[in-house]
Structure formats: C-alpha cells, structure tokens
Specification:
Largest sheet: 7 strands, parallel
Shape: globular
Structural class: alpha/beta
Order of helices and strands: EHEHEHEHHEHEEHEEEHEEHEEHH
Strand order of the largest sheet: 3-2-1-4-5-6-11
CATH architecture of one domain: 3-Layer(aba) Sandwich
Helix content: 40-55%
Oligomer: single chain
Length: 328
C-alpha cells in the first residue's frame, strides 16, 4: 500500500493514476487546502477504483497514526505542502510551520510504524540561480524564497535522517516545470485565484477569464529574449514517481525534466497553434529574482531509473486546454 500525501492535488492526482495503472494499491491523505473533493470521483472515473481518502491535516499526528493503523503502508510519496512562491514571501512563518512541521510529523509516524520508504516532492528552486546549464544534481544549492527554502531544509532533514537510520530508502525528486493534464481531461491544474505559473495563466486568458498575459521581460540573452524553462508533462512526471518506487535503494536524488528549454513566447505560440486560439499578451518589465534560463540534465534519472520524458510541448498545450474546456 502506498500512502500519497497531498494526493488530490495537481501532481499527486496524476501520480495516483499512474500508480493504479501499475497495479499499486493507494491510500490518500489531503486537507483540501489546495485541492478539491471532486477529484476523488474523477480519479475513480479514470481508474475504475475506489481509493480510500482521509481528509486530514498532515500536521495532526493522532490522525496520521490512525491512517497507519488502518492500512499496511509500505511506502510514502510526499507531495503535501504549500507551494506559492509569492505567498511564501508574504507569509514565511506559515510556510515554514506547515511544510516542515507536516514532514517531521510524517517521518516520526513512519518510524513508529516501521515504514522506511519515502519519495519526496522537491523542486528545481533548490538550485537558486545556477552558474551553468544544464543543471545537474550535484550543483550547489541555494534558494531565493521561503517556499524554496522549505524544500531545501526538508532535503537536509531527509539526508540527516538517512545518516542516523540507513534502513530508510529516501528518493528526492527535483521537478522542473510541470504543465499539461491527464489525457482524459478529467484532472489537471486548477489553481485558486490568479495563477502563479505560466500555463494556467495562458489557459485563463484563452478562456476569457483573464484579459491579457503579461510576459515578464523580452531582453534576456535567450532565443527570443523571453525566459526559458524546462516544461515537463505532468503525466511524464507522474511516471517518474512510479519508476522511483520500483528502484528504492538508499538515498537518491534525481532531476525530473525534459532536458530541453522552451521560452515563454515559444510556449505561447505553440499553445495558439495546437488549440487554434489567439492569446492576448503584452511585454512588461522583468520580475526581480527571475533567471534567464533553467533546464535540467536528466541523464542520472535515465541511467538509474530508465526515466525519459515522452510527451511534447504540443501535448502539454493541448492537454492543458482540453482539461479546462472540459471543466468550465
């Protein structure tokens, strides 16, 4: 049985679909702070399975113990956590309290119940502003915001835990930029309020919910002057978790991306082309803290896990819009 924390969220829900496709049994804990209850029914529709879901906060140790008592849990995939960079700058204490406290509670309960396998959802934000590209797992680590710092601190907690108790198998997955949606169109990215990330913003402009897309800077030293990022289809990312589950051994750290950069304008142009729609956009000044380019080296994940992203930018744009059209 695999416990998926934050399993009703964007990446968690897609990972559950892949887990069930690979015949894993799954139990979910989620407090609905950044997800919706209707995802439960949608997961059942996609997978044909009833998935046990506990609506609890991960910081609640008593409730978490009950989940471990009710289920024989072999491994944990830990997604739960607040994730908005801007909000983390405004409310750092809330981010440190929630993201770190919930992880400490989870790890303590895992030890109590002799569950020693965990996959942690980290982020490429732990690389800060990289000195060279592509970014490799052994690059220096630093952060530029409290959200990124919580990821980095949790990575260190996990490393220290492994040093103290090497019964643990710990896999740290550093994601680049997940976009897209399940091909069913039933689950996808559905941020509350004004989106922080590019693709949900493009989609909201496409549907008329937002008027215009602001492109932050067109004077970077890149292919067309706009920022370049490594976008990965969320289904490919989910597959990376399943491969990690099959290859748990000691402490391992992997980048999950495509290994290729795509600029903001390239992404917008592809979205327009595959969906036959025009996106209103304007160029505005750069945002402080944004870097020109960021993309992964995924050689290690390919060599050790057999992981390779398969879906294209076209797939990502088509699936993201398809999800929103299905759920308007």
């Amino acid at each position: 049985m695999i416990l998926v924390t934050g399993g009703l969220g964007y990446i968690g829900s897609h990972t559950i679909v892949e887990l069930i496709k690979n015949n894993y049994e799954v139990v979910v804990v989620d407090n609905l702070s950044n997800s919706k209850r209707e995802v439960i029914d949608k997961l059942k529709k996609i997978t044909g399975k009833d998935i046990p879901v506990y609506i609890n906060d991960l910081c609640d140790k008593k409730a978490l113990r009950q989940i471990f008592q009710d289920n024989i849990i072999d491994s944990v995939i830990h997604f739960a956590g607040f994730k908005a960079v801007g909000e983390s700058v405004e409310k750092p204490l809330m981010y440190y309290r929630n993201n770190i406290d919930s992880t400490l509670t989870l790890l303590e309960v895992m030890e109590e119940f002799n569950c020693f396998n965990i996959i942690f959802s980290s982020s490429a934000t732990v690389y800060g502003s990289p000195k060279s590209l592509p970014i490799k797992e052994d690059f220096p680590l630093s952060t530029t915001n409290p959200y990124g710092s919580t990821k980095l601190f949790i990575e260190q907690i996990l490393k220290d835990l492994y040093t103290s108790n090497n019964k643990f198998n710990i896999t740290i997955l550093r994601y680049f930029n997940p976009i897209g949606a399940d091909e069913s169109g039933l689950i996808g990215e559905d941020p509350r309020g004004i989106p922080n990330n590019l693709m949900p913003y493009i989609v909201k402009v496409a549907t008329g919910e937002l008027e215009i897309l602001s492109v932050f800077g067109d004077d970077y030293d890149t292919v067309d002057g706009t920022g370049v990022r490594d976008y990965i289809h969320v289904t490919d990312l989910a597959r990376g978790h399943v491969l990690s589950l099959k290859n748990q051994n000691g402490l391992r750290i992997y980048n999950l991306g495509t290994g290729h950069g795509t600029s903001v304008l390239e992404l917008v142009n592809t979205f327009e082309k595959v969906n036959n729609i025009k996106i209103n956009k304007k160029i505005v000044p750069r945002r402080p803290g944004d870097i020109a380019e960021c993309f992964a080296s995924c050689d290690k994940a390919f060599k050790e896990l057999g992981f390779k992203a398969e879906k294209t930018i076209e797939d990502m744009c088509r699936d993201a819009y398809n999800y929103v059209k299905n759920n308007e």
